[in-house]
Write a structure and sequence with these properties.
The complex is a heterodimer. By secondary structure, chain A is mainly α. Chain A folds into two domains: about 280 residues, no CATH class; about 190 residues, no CATH class. Chain A is built from 19 helices and six strands. In chain A, helix 6 packs parallel to helix 14, helix 9 packs antiparallel against helix 10 and helix 9 packs parallel to helix 12. The relative contact order of chain A is 0.12. Chain B folds into four domains: about 220 residues, no CATH class; about 70 residues, Calcium-transporting ATPase, cytoplasmic transduction domain A (Distorted Sandwich); about 110 residues, Rossmann fold (3-Layer(aba) Sandwich); about 140 residues, Calcium-transporting ATPase, cytoplasmic domain N. In chain B, about 50% of the residues lie in helices and about 15% in strands. Chain B is built from 22 helices and 24 strands. In chain B, the strands form six sheets. In chain B, strands 12-24-23-22-13-20-21 form a seven-stranded mixed beta sheet, sandwiched between helices. In chain B, helix 7 packs antiparallel against helix 8 and helix 10 crosses helix 20. The longest helix of chain B is centred in the C-terminal third of the chain and has 39 residues. The N and C termini of chain B lie far apart (about 75 Å). The chains are: A mainly alpha, B alpha+beta. The interface between A and B is large, with 68 and 75 residues.
């Protein structure tokens, strides 16, 4: 079987699997977030934390709870790293330097999982499990909570409240992420991933070199790494390491885990607003963008426009032979389209246009399908903006799902979509105009520039993957990228929750023939168009000086 | 309500709508130039940025002169000027209208009564009048202020505000008591109680409205402004952050010679500002306020005064339309539609008797019987004077019938029960058949009139006249259109449910409210609003005032009472309730124009990038020349062409902004498709052609290669 045919089967089977799973999973998630009952474990948690699970919160309280929880999370992860030598299971590693600890704490709490460090040689098992792995669950649950709060904004009529953050957080973690991750980990163990507590093994390689191999609770962390669109690998080489991603088969399964929740959330959205077709429209937008991106990335990588790739049939530099060009491209698309950031190949070594696709995927704002929760709320914001312009064109005050998009809603939606482009472009520009920023570049010219652009795009969009080629583990980059991550995560969340609050307070306008239908292919096409055009207009100059300059001849 | 309806001649328009007159552009130039003042321009952030850019470019052109820099500077100033021109032209039309109104607002004096019932008066200036004062106005005098007639009846020339030259009757009591200051009494004497506060007369408000003096941004306009501001910020960030990236690009390609666009210091200021101005949504930013002013203006041209832009916008959102049956849906009067003879009588007998009984009946119903008899049976219309011995029996509320006694024969027509009783009293025995005929007419929503006679001592019923509410022509089509637009129409009538249903079915409204009282109306509006719907209605009576105030769009008839005019948020000077439908369409058109031009403006950016990015960077990265799909002559001509296109498109779209985009009632889906193709796809394609064309022309200018 040719590489192309294999690639096509790989993608088609993934689409099929996700299509099969998204309905039951979406319905299940809708039930989880709308259910009234608390199970015994949950009640225990609520009692320990001291919250009343049946008390509904206004958006402001919801946001404050979320921010407080995240702040505490950052402090805990930071503390665990700084004190790891004093605690157990440190594998003898020294305390993590302050700027790395700050960057890593922010990175994992914001669901970015940007790794300025090399996992196996920096973090002990305690930090990995009690710090990073815990955040892999809860940071993902936070994203879903925000999405659910926004859905409630659309679904509720004249309500002052948008739900209870603590309940959403606990249920998302315990009822959705934990069970799926558990099953996922078992499957991955079966697929050949390690799950143990061993320290470093010294191994002599075939060529006679010496290598240190560390074991660890890899499979468990791997499952949630993908499922929660986290992406922080146990090992530095992430999912290209055989212990993290053993075979083509586990590669397929990891991509499946990455995509399964983001693609199922629109179904939950449709369920919760009582109009399944609205969920289908949203999922159709995501799928259209995703398929476009996956296909283009595959084409660019398989076609490969340099001499060597053409000689061997595909651009294989930086890719694992186990996976091949196509499956690496598909993984790269999945990991950048969601805010995962796990990698099974070196994006830096992709063809210039293939690399540009990974950049563009993130620049879309992580919405196709995006991170768990974050993808849905990002996409709903884009839908709101599209509805506004299109709604005016049908001669009515724009409304989405019966909720009017007035000045306040537009202000919040506009602020949302301003945040990441401003962070990406400002961050990149400051790096390019600054000694500390330029000093870290290992490559020159447009490619070097792309690497920095990629770093800021990845951090600001909470993706976490790295193009590579930049020495980012310097105090300057750790601080700058940490700022991008924290602002890129929490500013949009505040705007989304405020939007949820103002939408929930509205009474819906009943739909009529004069209402813009938001479930038809027309609307799907429009959202796709608006997304691509807005992103293209924002980033074209930067892309022109990076991947386009390198890739067009 | 008068029978003045659909067929009523349109009032002459004061200022023509339609295409832009080039003279108007020229006349508005001074105003446009005045608007360059940054102290006022900052209220439009997009254009303010263009002006700042123009000023900066001018300075750059002074410090480092080149033809290119000067050309860009000039065109950036023109861009700002064109934007101001759009607003000035729109305001200019309003000012012209205000001038005609001001002419009506002459300094008048008033004869203020010392006591309401007395005859003693003082001569005072109109401006000294206070609410509650009584003034007396006689033929030939100008009414000094808005108020209600409390005594007398007069014919009034209201052409100053309505443009309609035929005089109207104003009388005390009832729904035709309101008079407007500045109008002229043509006959008789009336006493008016002043209801306005000084300086807040109807004409004052009209002047302020058409001039746009206290124009406030409407909710959708504010929301759109936020979006435009966000886009502007994004493009500001995009262009500013490009600079360090460009410097780096130039630095790693040391072999490339400096160009006009890119040097070691980065992209030149002039080019950077050009890119920014091309990217920010200048087209819609320039035209936004003109669109709003023109929307109000279109209403004024149809003789509707909206008290706020918010009301116009709400009109586009209306999802329930409450329409009075009489005068709006039906012609306002019942008309004879059929003669049905009773057993033992024939059509000819019945028609003759019906005509005879109606000759002296001056009510519209009576006239319609005579007309029907003439048109259908060829009976000559006889003047009452012809029958010298006739004794005419007029209609009274007690007898509920009218007729004539002539040559020993008595003919009566009237309400079924009354005429039947009269027949029985004269020894007649109406057959059951007549009862069936009467019931049949009632069941079909009509009004039955029974015609009977007593001749030679014998009383008998001749037959039944079917009086019918005549639905105006074309109403069904209008309501079908409304339905396609997603608007529910509800007919309001005092008729019984049976009659109401028949007319509702015939007219094709979605629902009806029968035997409606003002309280029912108010309750219906509240119920609709509870469900999230916006309601529009018309009204003229004082008892309509609460409902007019509650409705999202309340259109008061100019013939109505002051209370109604005060309660509504629009006044129709023609007092034509059908106009509500047009108002809704204008509201929609206003929003569509904004949306369409926003889409166009954003879509334009794609082509501009394809012009400017290769112009800036193809020197360092030759591959980027592939983006120069328009094959523009040189970097300079490409950038200048984009800037010129950006400016010219504003002027080119001023007529569209003032006229509004074409609107045909249809479903949201169809509207969107059409506008997307026209303004979305068109907005992507048009600038490619436009910029290329301009480039072809300007490439021969000096400094362009």
């Amino acid at each position: 079987m040719s590489q192309t045919a294999a690639g096509i089967i790989f993608i088609a089977s993934l689409i099929l699997a996700i299509a099969l799973v998204h309905k039951p999973l979406g319905d299940y998630m809708a039930r989880v977030y709308t259910g009234l009952r608390h199970n015994r474990v949950e009640r225990l948690v609520y009692r320990l934390v001291g919250v009343r699970p049946d008390a509904e919160q206004r958006w402001g309280v919801y946001a404050r709870s979320l921010l407080a929880f995240s702040l505490i999370s950052i402090l805990v992860v930071y503390g665990l790293q700084r004190l790891q030598d004093k605690l157990f299971l440190s594998l003898g590693f020294a305390p993590v330097p302050d700027h790395v600890a700050w960057n890593t704490a922010i990175s994992f709490v914001t669901n970015t999982n940007w790794q300025a460090y090399s996992g196996e040689s920096t973090m002990g098992h305690l930090v990995q499990m009690a710090g990073l792995a815990v955040q892999n669950f809860v940071s993902a649950a936070v994203g879903m909570a925000v999405a659910v709060a926004l859905i409630r904004g659309f679904a509720r009529r004249g309500s002052e409240t948008v739900g209870n953050f603590w309940v959403d957080l606990v249920r998302g973690s315990l009822r959705i992420l934990l069970p799926i991750a558990f099953v996922g980990a078992l499957v991955l163990v079966a697929g050949g991933l390690v799950q143990n507590f061993t320290g470093p093994h010294e191994i002599t390689t075939l060529t006679g070199g010496v290598q240190n191999l560390t074991g660890g609770p890899v499979a468990g962390q791997e499952a949630i790494k993908e499922l929660g669109t986290n992406g922080g690998g146990f090992y530095n080489t992430n999912s290209s390491h055989p212990f993290e991603n053993a075979t083509t088969w586990t590669n397929w399964f990891e991509i499946f885990l990455i995509l399964v929740i983001p693609f199922a959330l629109p179904r939950a959205f449709g369920r919760m607003v009582g109009q399944l077709r609205q969920g289908y429209a949203i999922v159709a937008v995501m799928a259209t963008l995703a398929v476009l991106s996956v296909v283009l990335l595959n084409v660019f990588e398989l076609a490969g426009n340099a001499t060597v790739p053409q000689a061997i049939g595909a651009a294989m530099e930086g890719k694992e032979v186990r996976f091949g060009a196509s499956n690496s491209a598909t993984f790269a698309a999945a990991t950048t389209l969601t805010s995962t950031g796990a990698v099974n190949s070196f994006h830096d070594s992709f063809t210039p246009l293939g690399g540009m696709m990974t950049l563009l995927n993130m620049m879309l704002g992580e919405v196709a399908p995006g991170g768990v929760g974050a993808g849905l709320y990002g996409m709903l914001i884009l839908a709101v903006i599209t509805v506004f312009v299109a709604g005016l064109m049908v001669g009515r005050t724009p409304e989405y799902l019966g909720k009017r998009i007035g000045a306040r809603e537009m202000k919040l939606a506009s602020l949302y979509f301003l945040v990441t482009p401003v962070l990406v472009l400002t961050g990149t520009a400051v790096a390019m105009a600054n000694e500390a920023g330029l000093a870290a570049m290992l490559n020159n010219g447009p490619h070097g520039f792309s690497e920095i652009l990629y770093a800021f795009t990845s951090a600001s969009n909470n993706n976490g993957s790295a193009f590579g080629g930049v020495t980012v583990n310097t105090p300057w980059y750790d601080v700058a990228l940490g700022l991008c991550m924290v602002l890129g995560r929490f500013l949009p969340i505040i705007f989304v929750l405020a939007l949820a609050g103002s939408l929930a307070a509205q009474k819906p306008v009943p739909a009529s023939a004069g209402t813009l239908p938001t479930h038809r292919p027309q609307f799907v096409g429009l959202v796709v168009g608006v997304t691509i055009i807005v992103v293209a207009l924002t980033f074209l100059p930067a892309l022109a000086l990076g991947p386009l300059a390198e890739g067009i001849h | 309500m008068s029978a003045q309806t659909l067929e009523a001649p349109q009032a002459p328009r004061r200022v023509g709508g339609g295409l832009l007159d080039p003279r108007q552009l020229l006349a508005s130039l001074p105003d446009a130039a005045r608007k360059l003042n940054p102290a006022t321009l900052w209220r439009n952030p997009v254009m303010f940025i263009v002006e700042v850019g123009a000023a900066a470019t001018t300075i750059l052109a002074f410090t480092d002169p080149s033809f290119f820099a000067w050309a860009i500077a000039v065109w950036l100033w023109l861009t700002t000027l064109f934007a101001n021109l759009a607003e000035a032209v729109a305001e200019g039309r309003g000012k012209a209208q205000a001038a005609t109104l001001r002419a009506a607002k002459r300094d008048t004096t008033a004869r203020r009564l010392r006591a309401r019932t007395g005859f003693d008066w003082d001569q005072v200036g109109a401006t000294e009048l206070r609410q509650g004062d009584f003034v007396v106005v006689e033929a030939g005098e100008i009414i000094p202020g808005d108020g209600d007639v409390v005594e007398g009846i007069a014919s009034v020339d209201e052409s100053a505000i309505t443009g309609e030259s035929a005089p109207v009757i104003r009388e005390s009591g009832g729904d035709r008591s309101a008079v407007t200051g500045g109008t002229k009494v043509l006959s008789d004497r009336i006493v008016v109680q002043i209801t306005q506060k000084p300086g807040e007369s109807f004409i004052d408000r009209m002047i302020a409205l058409v001039e746009g003096a206290n124009r406030q941004k409407t909710p959708n306009e504010i929301a759109l402004n936020i979006l435009l501001a966000a886009l502007t910020i994004i493009f500001l960030v995009t262009t500013i952050t490009m600079q360090p990236m460009a410097i780096y690009a130039k630095a790693v390609n040391p072999g490339v010679a400096d160009s006009l666009a890119l040097t070691a210091d980065g992209v030149s200021g002039v080019v950077l500002i050009s890119l920014l101005v091309c990217l920010i949504p200048t087209t819609i930013g320039a035209l936004l306020s003109a669109i709003g002013i023109a929307g109000m203006d279109r209403l004024v041209q149809r003789n509707v005064l909206a008290m706020s832009g918010r009301a116009v916008e709400a009109a586009g959102d209306v999802s329930t339309l409450l329409l009075d049956k009489t005068g709006t849906i039906t012609l306002g009067n019942r008309q004879a539609a059929d003669f049905m003879p009773a057993p033992g009588a024939n059509h000819g007998e019945l028609a003759a008797a019906a005509q005879l009984a109606s000759l002296a009946d001056e009510t519209p119903e009576g006239r319609s019987i005579v007309v029907y008899a003439k048109e259908t049976y060829g009976l000559r219309e006889r003047a009452p004077g012809e029958l010298t011995h006739a004794h005419w029996v007029p209609f009274t509320a007690q007898t509920r019938m009218s007729g004539v006694d002539v040559d020993g024969r008595q003919v009566r027509k009237g309400a079924a029960t009354a005429v039947m009783k009269w027949i029985r009293e004269h020894g007649g025995h109406p057959t059951e058949q007549v009862g069936h005929l009467v019931d049949g007419v009632s069941a079909s929503g009509g009004t039955p009139l029974v015609v009977g006679e007593v001749a030679d001592g014998k009383a008998r019923v001749l037959g039944v006249i079917h009086l019918k509410d005549v639905v105006k022509q074309g109403m069904r089509e209008r309501f079908d259109e409304m339905r396609r637009m997603g608007i529910r129409t509800v007919m309001i009538t005092g008729d019984n449910p049976l009659t109401a249903k028949a007319i509702a079915d015939e007219a094709g409204v979605d629902d009806f409210l029968a035997e409606a009282t003002p309280e029912d109306k108010l309750a219906l509006i509240k119920k609709e609003q509870e469900g999230g719907r916006l309601v529009a209605m018309t009204g003229d009576g004082t008892n309509d005032a609460p409902a007019l105030a509650q409705a999202d769009v309340g259109v008061a008839m100019n013939t109505g009472t002051s209370a109604a005019k005060e309660a509504g948020n629009m006044v129709d000077l023609d007092s034509n309730p059908t106009k509500l439908i047009e108002i809704v369409e204008i509201g929609k058109q206003l929003l569509i124009t904004r949306g369409a031009l926003t889409t166009f403006s954003i879509a334009n950016d794609i082509a501009k990038y394809f012009a400017i990015i290769p112009a800036m960077f193809a020197a360092v990265y030759p591959g980027l020349d592939a983006l120069n799909v328009m094959r523009l002559a040189s970097p300079q001509s490409a950038i200048l062409a984009a800037v010129i296109f950006n400016a010219i498109v504003i002027v080119a779209l001023i007529p569209l902004a003032l006229r509004g985009v074409r609107y045909r009632p249809s479903s949201a889906s169809k509207l969107l498709s059409r506008n997307l193709y026209l303004y979305g796809v068109g907005g992507i394609v048009a600038p490619f052609a436009g910029i290329k064309l301009i480039d072809l022309l300007i490439q021969f200018l000096p400094g362009m290669s």
